[in-house]
Amino acid sequence: MKIKSIISIALCAVLVFSLLGIAASAAPENEVIDEIYELVAENEHNSLFLDKTTGNIVVRNAATGNLWYSAVSDEAGDKNSVGIEKSNVKSPIVMQYLYRENAISADSNSLETTNTVEECDEDCISVKKIKNGVKVTFTIDWLGVVIPVEYVLEGESLKASILYDELEEGSDIFIIYLKLLPGFGAGTMAEQGYLVIPDGSGTVINFNNGSGASEYVGYVYGNEIDPLSYVNKIQTEDVRLPIFGIVKSDRALLGVITEGDDSAAICAYSSFAKKYGYNIATSKAVYRYNSPVSMFGTDWEGKNIQSWTMCADSKKYTVSYYFLGAEKASYQGIASKYQDYLVDSGVLKKSKNAPTLHLDVYNSISKTSAILGFKYQKQISLTSYKEVKKILEELKAAGITDITAELIGWSGSGVSNEKLPTKARHLSSVGGKKNFKKLKAFAEENGITLVANADFAYAAEMKRSDAIQSYFNKLLYKYLYRKSVFTERRSTAQLIADSDRVLSAGKSFLKSYSSTGLDTISMDTLGDYFYSNFSRKAPQSRKYLIDNVQKLLAAYNEKGVSVSLADANAYTFKYVDTITAAPIGSSCYEMFDYDIPLYQMVLHGYITVTTESLPQTIDEELTYLWAVSTGTEPMYNTIYKKASVLQETEYDYLYSSTFDWWKDEAVAKYKEYSKLLANIYDKKITSYTEVLPNVVETIYEGGIQVYVNYNTTEVTVNGIKVAARSYEWIGGDSE
Amino acid sequence: MRNFGKLFKVLVLTLVAVMLLSMSVSALPQLTAPYDGYEYDGYKTSHEAPITYLTQGSLTAADLGLETPFSSASDMVYKNGKLYVLDTGNGRIVVIDVSTYKVKEIISDFVDQNGAPVNFTGATGFDVSENGDFYIADTKNTRVLVFDSNRRLALEIGRPDEALAGTDTPFDVAKVMLGNDGTIYVICKSINTGILTFTQEGDFKVFYGSNTVQATADVLKQFFYNKFLTRAQRAARRSITPTNFANMTLDAHNFVYTVKADRFIFGSSDVLQCLNYTGKSNLKSDTSFGEYENDSYSFYWDRFNNCFTDLDIDTEGMINVLDSEYGRVYQYTVDGDFIGSFGGKGAYQGMMSNATAIETVNGEVLVLDAAKSCLHKYAPTEYGLALRHAFLLGDSTDLDAREAAWDHVLKLNSNSIYPYYGLGLVNDERGEYKEAMENFQIAGAQDEYSKAFKQYRKQAMADNALWIVLVIVLIVAVIVLIKKFINKKMKVVDGTAYSPLETKWGLPIYTLFHPVDSFDQFKDRKTESPLIATGIVVLWFIVDTISFFCTGFSFSTARVTDFNLLIEIFKTVGLFLLFVAANWSMCTLLNGKGTFKEIYCGVAYSLIPYIVSIGIAAALSNVLTGSEGVFITIVTSVGLVWSIALVAFALITLHEYSFGKMLWSVFLTLIAMIVIGFLMALFYTLMLQVWQFGKSIIAELQLR
């Protein structure tokens, strides 16, 4: 008895001391703020301190007492950083620019980099107090550059902005990129943690994983088309959310680009031997973009002329920072905070759409055919209206009626537009108006949602003045690419409509859409439609495009038509009900450690999100399990005819979509899954963790817990047995 | 005490939980890959396909448990259940345990006969025998070293002077391989007369697998082009000397497989060879390896340039070829069917930077990357396994298993032509010939289609014998009637000088049987009709076009979209006009008496037999099989010869030539045609230049 008590006391002591040790090491080394920082603003959430000599800031978060530095100092980190990187990570602003005299032949490799720590000493930095914050102006005399920056405390967040309308470039240079607070909250080489990057579905870069040989740059909402490149090497995912996050062991930082996200990029790197000494995630404002042209052909002696045109179009470039404590120090915490932000700003509203099995039904495609050598586009029916009805009847017979069937290629010239659609007219080759009415009646009787798709962005032909052009008035095209040699398939070329045309086509279509009697429309291609029109006759910025797209979506909403988009950018969230084909992974760069469903976690409970089409994924079983763990609804590309009808068309991406082939498995899986979905479709995700190796636990508001086991063996977690490659859930209406 | 114990338990558990959570290294599933899958169809066009192998990660020095990472590691051998890596830059061999993928042993202590250490830094190739002997191609010191299992030098092979007599080619050994009979195979970078073989004693045996340059059209074309290119351009072109092997391997049956770096070598298409004991290739001669599509829109010879560096034959006989140019692994069956390729180049997960060696271990593919200093690992996906399984069933007698396997592949990838081909073979063996034909047509397999068609036709003929007889009788009757009718019309009716056939409209038919008389009538009665002649030429165009679309699949795999209207017009109408114009212009030189109108009509009328033969040939192609193609050739030959004879008669009669003069005139006509053609081409390129010049001026004006 005595020995036992001695041992237990000793063990307790060890425990207590180790806990204290952990607590001690977790506390920031500089609890006390250096005297050089002065308090310049304060509210109930945060206090803002400024260093007048460099323009750097410190924020003390009241709730946690944590300090966040825009210039982290760490001996090992400084030693490991090389060249200009040493000061880049300690500057409030990093500027990349080109000398005007070189600009015409310079390319992105000849950018000069400098930062405010190098260029501006105390005398060149002027500070002015403003309401709830401070305005700091950096002047680089020898270039004539003036960069005004504002730091403002607003509610829970710190808003850091670059004021574009007071920005002066000087006459010697073109400013190309401006990085704002790159070192804010940087992770040191000793710390544990990771960077959260919204590439595709979302991804994580662990601190110090040693693969930061080059910086990650992800253009928000996608990059422009390069008019000179005819080769697309790798298909990568785009950044759909204008956010980035830094997660440490006991705290996290979320950055949201709230203004100027139309022309921005997310940047990140982890520490890397003799180059980067810190782990950073930050953003940069894209001020100018290169839209080149090639003269004299590209066979030999072709010369490229560059044009660096202004593309930023807002008054300010603003990033709002949110300071999170230990309970939100995870990527799920970051997602949940961003979700709160979207809810508070009125972008997201609780979902009213009951969960369904999603079918992307392809009705008709055009195939190049010939009569006696005269080529013409023949409409080939993949699924007529009668066949859609058959599909729905078969699913009903199998016991599923909560279905959303999206009809693609039902009008105009099928899936790919010949011209932009302005009138809703049924193709006779898929059955015409009569059969559509029968189909619609069937759907209505059985509570099946019918959605029709229209593409207002791309078409094979359109007026030159309606299409997007490069700075040199060269038409830009969108292609499908060969997967073998990466070249474009010329026969898939489509022109891109500028946003004014998209708005007018969409509005005119709306008038006749009501004749279909459907109250939902899908504009799949508008989800990631994001280009500047650099044409000098009618230039349009991406900000202008965002405004037009939002206007169009709002117009449909006002008429009572809800909108569904595919792979949608964040600026559309306010106006959509459903997002199909949401990304299920990232671009798979080497520097990424693993992919996370950030996109899905942000939207769950508010917008219905589906997977990419399941038959075309690499591992359908695994993807389905992942969908279950994120509450994502399954989606299938569907055609009724035999797949050989797609031979020698450009639609080889629809392989294995034949309904008969996947229906049995899809039905069986969905019957199970729908029971879970019914309980969670309108609930937020409150926790998402890997509780055992390859076993993920998802907890929803209201307490429902879902366990997904990716292993090939059975596991027991929290007393629940989960079979191999399967899932279980408790709470709500589970059996 | 009890409460204390409970509290203690709770504390420990929470502490453990906290530690676990904070230390957890997440391994959530990877659902996407940075590379895409594709396959080629019968027309060498690529289509999307699911990927066949998915990356399982890249094993760096840290993952393997190595202190110093690989440096320019250039070769890898999987033998005796262990993976050996030749770490060229560090002059050592690293042995990896394939069950844990951790380093088992680092071998750098090779000694010579006197115990002095031997340095082989810079060695680019090696092999390991079953009892642990090492054969190392010491590139830097131009020698092959053989060490026994005690790490002692057993043999050193230097330059075999007698084999390389008369040349000063260095013995720059690159790769070495041990054959199953003890022969040592050595590839030298500069020696392109084949693989050097040595005995276990180090004596030179023979050059194995020697290659020669075959004079093909490509070689001749290259020769002529070189005359016109600038020196710089010539340097950029490929040389015609045979290139050397890049690497070699043995398969399970001890056949030697070799691979060459360059795919488009003028004069030889043997990028990958399976050499038998005499050094001749076993593989089907029409198999092609690497990409089939162009990666640029410039000239024909700038195709996608694979650069193969290594190959491996896995335990099931599939060929894996490694291309370092694009960082891909290409997989083929022994018959040369392309299963798929995976990988790529770039800073993405599972992509290579400088791939130097490949091995298959336990169903997974390992690639050694010299630049990234790691081993990339790939495992087959569901689709990859399904495809391999279906191919490996080959022509087994279990038709149901084959059907199920190909069905599975089809469901996973409906773009692939292989399941259609496989299912077609199953249909064929089951006697379901109609389905077999359908499947073969989709797969683009002409020969098999033809064979199945033969069987189908047999069946169809047997089933419909009665109808066929009736139709034949009908056709014969119609022919007889037509003949009778023509004969009647050719009879001169009492009172008239000419038969009813010899009118303007009947003259074309009359020409078929009495050409000389008919052409005489051109001059005498002026009964030729340019309108009818034009009609005949247009008919030629129409029939030729129809035959393009209506030829049976056994004879033509041309697709509807391959049809080029402009070329078709030129082939028929254009050619006709060119001949007539050339002939007429030449007739001034030879005192020909024919007018343009006469020549025009005469040649046109002569075309009728040829046109008819094309039509009949097209019809026949739908009922004959490939092997019966000789009948079609006979029909078209008869038509062609008849037409040529008629043209000869036309020229003789209309121009009043002798036979010899007619031949001379034809020769001159052909020359004239070439000249006219050349002038037109010149004119076209000139106009093109003007057009481009104009365009660039406009472009520059726009930029002002």
CATH topology of the largest domain in chain A: Beta-galactosidase, Chain A, domain 5
Mean pLDDT of chain B: 84
Number of helical regions of chain A: 12
* Largest β sheet strand count, sense and barrel closure of chain B: 4 strands, antiparallel
Biggest β-sheet of chain A: count, sense, barrel? 10 strands, antiparallel
Kindly provide the name of the CATH class of the largest domain in chain A.
Mainly Beta
Secondary structure: number of strands of chain A: 43
Structural class by helix and strand composition of chain B: alpha+beta
Q: List the uncertain runs of chain A.
A: 21-30
- Tally of individual domains of chain A: 4
> Kindly state the mean pLDDT of chain A as a whole number?
90
Find the structural class of chain A using helix and strand composition.
Answer: alpha+beta
Number of strands of chain B: 25
| Largest interchain contact | A-B, 81 and 76 residues
- In what order do the strands lie side by side in the largest sheet of chain A? 7-8-9-10-23-16-15-12-13-35
- Tally of alpha and pi helices of chain B: 18
Q: Rg of chain B, please?
A: 36 Å
Q: What spatial form of chain B do the alpha-carbon principal axes imply?
A: elongated
Oligomer: heterodimer
Taken as a percent bin, the fraction of beta residues of chain B is 15-25%
Low-confidence stretches of chain B: 12-25, 298-302
